[in-house]
């Protein structure tokens, strides 16, 4: 039996966080959702299989979080998908080491396909 896939989602918009979390749970994922991206760096819980991080969050920047995750031995192998309301940030997401980028607003199917792609790599 396969273990369930864990996804950590960080976004400072409670509406987006709730909607994305609910849709991912309906797809069978275990979701850890947080309004404060900085908590993912200090979390001692079981590591996720994928991170989905908003780029612009109050108190933290998804690109900086991505760089930190990619520089740490225990998290550098975990795919990071950055999301943002600005499509102009795709390049800076790549510079930060993100595995993928998604512009808001997005269809949940698009996010699901990016998560599936990230899990295959």
UniProtKB/TrEMBL annotation:
SUPFAM superfamilies assigned: CheY-like
Keywords: Phosphoprotein
Residues bearing PTM 4-aspartylphosphate: 54
Record domain Response regulatory: where: 6-119
Pfam families documented for this protein: Response_reg
GO process annotations (BP): phosphorelay signal transduction system
InterPro entries named among the record's database cross-references: Bact_response_regulator, CheY-like_superfamily, Sig_transdc_resp-reg_receiver
Name used for this protein in its record: Response regulator
Species this protein is from: Pedobacter planticolens
Lineage: Bacteria, Pseudomonadati, Bacteroidota, Sphingobacteriia, Sphingobacteriales
């Amino acid at each position: 039996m396969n273990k369930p896939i864990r996804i950590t989602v960080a976004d400072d918009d409670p509406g987006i966080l709730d909607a994305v979390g609910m849709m991912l749970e309906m797809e069978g994922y275990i979701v850890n959702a947080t309004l404060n991206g900085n908590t993912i760096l200090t979390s001692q819980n079981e590591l996720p299989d994928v991170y989905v991080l908003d780029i612009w969050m109050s108190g933290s920047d998804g690109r900086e979080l991505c760089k930190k995750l990619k520089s740490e031995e225990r998290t550098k192998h975990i795919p990071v998908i950055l999301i943002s309301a600005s499509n102009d940030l795709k390049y800076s997401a790549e510079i930060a080491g993100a595995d993928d980028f998604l512009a808001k607003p997005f269809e949940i199917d698009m996010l699901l396909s990016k998560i599936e792609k990230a899990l295959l790599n």
